[in-house]
User: Fold this.
Amino acid sequence: GEDVEQSLFLSVREGDSSVINCTYTDSSSTYLYWYKQEPGAGLQLLTYIFSNMDMKQDQRLTVLLNKKDKHLSLRIADTQTGDSAIYFCAEIPGVSGGYNKLIFGAGTRLAVHP
Amino acid sequence: DSGVTQTPKHLITATGQRVTLRCSPRSGDLSVYWYQQSLDQGLQFLIHYYNGEERAKGNILERFSAQQFPDLHSELNLSSLELGDSALYFCASSVPGGGYTFGSGTRLTVV
Assistant:
């Protein structure tokens, strides 16, 4: 089946690292994504990882993928107040019918405090 | 700027009415995906169009319909509106190499 789960809330101190976790169920997922949504705004694509990769780093962001456990994480180094937002994990399940669609988790609300 | 344009940004309407939401995908992109974001259902895939043809349907109600025009813009029509239809409606376009880029959304409030 298609299901993506995330913890709903994370609070961190400014300057610390944040780790947002996600689990998915479709072992044939080809791409996994992290999106950021600030209050009142749309969805911003942060990063994505192919299913044949274990890790991807992009400046302060590190994505780790454990295919065996179907676990994806997003680490934000030196978290800033501007990182406060909702972070969505999303997957493209195994392609069927010639189309792709994103399946989203419920989102993790990251609160950064001084 | 994602390159995906949605209008209007906000819409307030009464129950029973019909509204049309509009989306223009990134220049040159043939795909349009529609999503609904509500507090209780999260982000739900509604429908996908590619080059004018419907490719996939998700959790889209029969009261809702969409189409994609020859110039590739798309419209999402919502009719017989209910209070529970109040949500953010996003459209998205594909990004070369993988991923989707989203418009800033239309916030629909049904009163």
